[in-house]
């Protein structure tokens, strides 16, 4: 199959060039640098800003704008005093599979680092989500998400203490919460509702994840239910936009 202007189906039409043909200097430099990244390969160090500015005949500020966009897109990353070619984004499925399963499917080692585990009286909005009475005890567990020890996200889980009374003592926070529910409590997941949006991290979130505050994040809100249809957990998962993409499978609805 041929694609418009000979482009790969995943690439922007006409490589992002407007119909009037006038290309911003920074964008022309960005295209040139992107081609250079393909030549260099993952993990290779980019030439200095001075070398690149001379090579592509642009000002240092124009070059920096091109580099900033490539960093935000996850195609470059800072490493010490230099800039290196980043690897491909992790493709996390939008499914009931856990974070652990999704990262392992990418050939990487998942991990988590506990930030806090607190118990508090359930407020009204959360009580409505979890099918609890206002004031019932709930857990809030916050963990930094890791992939090969790289910080890639932040996850907040809210669950009724009644459902998991020994969470503070029996659960290893470095491991999969879903696996713990299944193996230790015989609780299975039935279905979930999710909402995905783009946000900027708060200063606290950026510090925990180790990213600049201006880096776009992918935020997923999830309300999960068990196999009996009872609300089980409310989760807020924040992922680095430069390290993650999400996939799903779409089917034709019944009678469609």
From TrEMBL:
Residues 21-88 form the HTH gntR-type domain. This is GntR family transcriptional regulator. One of its GO terms (biological process) is negative regulation of DNA-templated transcription. SMART domains: HTH_GNTR (SM00345), UTRA (SM00866). It holds the Pfam family UTRA. The lineage of its organism: Bacteria, Bacillati, Actinomycetota, Actinomycetes, Kitasatosporales. PANTHER family: GNTR-FAMILY TRANSCRIPTIONAL REGULATOR, MANNOSYL-D-GLYCERATE TRANSPORT/METABOLISM SYSTEM REPRESSOR MNGR-RELATED. InterPro entries: Bact_HTH_transcr_reg (IPR050679), Chorismate_lyase_/UTRA_dom_sf (IPR028978), Tscrpt_reg_HTH_GntR (IPR000524), UTRA (IPR011663), WH-like_DNA-bd_sf (IPR036388), WH_DNA-bd_sf (IPR036390). The keyword Transcription regulation applies. The keyword Transcription applies. CDD domains: WHTH_GntR. PROSITE patterns: HTH_GNTR. Keywords: DNA-binding, Transcription, Transcription regulation. GO terms for molecular function: DNA binding; DNA-binding transcription factor activity.
């Amino acid at each position: 199959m041929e694609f418009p202007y000979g482009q790969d189906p995943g690439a922007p039409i006409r490589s992002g060039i407007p119909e009037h043909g006038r290309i911003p200097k920074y964008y022309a430099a960005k295209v040139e640098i992107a081609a250079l990244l393909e030549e260099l390969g993952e993990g290779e160090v980019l030439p200095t800003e001075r070398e690149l500015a001379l090579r592509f005949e642009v000002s240092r500020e124009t070059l920096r704008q091109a580099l900033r966009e490539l960093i935000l897109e996850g195609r470059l990353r800072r490493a010490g005093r230099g800039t290196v070619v980043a690897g491909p984004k992790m493709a996390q499925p939008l499914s009931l599979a856990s974070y652990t399963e999704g990262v392992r499917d990418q050939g990487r080692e998942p991990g988590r680092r506990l930030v806090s585990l607190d118990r508090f009286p359930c407020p009204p909005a959360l009580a409505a989500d979890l099918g609890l009475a206002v004031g019932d005890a709930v857990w809030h567990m916050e963990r930094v998400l890791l992939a090969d020890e790289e910080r890639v996200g932040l996850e907040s889980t809210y669950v009724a203490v009644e459902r998991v009374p020994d969470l503070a003592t029996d659960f290893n926070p470095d491991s999969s919460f879903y696996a713990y529910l299944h193996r230790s409590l015989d609780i299975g997941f039935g279905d979930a509702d999710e909402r995905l949006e783009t946000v900027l991290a708060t200063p606290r979130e950026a510090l925990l994840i180790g990213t600049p505050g201006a880096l776009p994040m992918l935020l997923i809100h999830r309300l999960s239910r068990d196999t009996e249809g009872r609300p089980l957990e409310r989760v807020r998962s924040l992922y680095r936009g430069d390290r993650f993409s999400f996939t799903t499978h779409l089917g034709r609805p019944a009678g469609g």
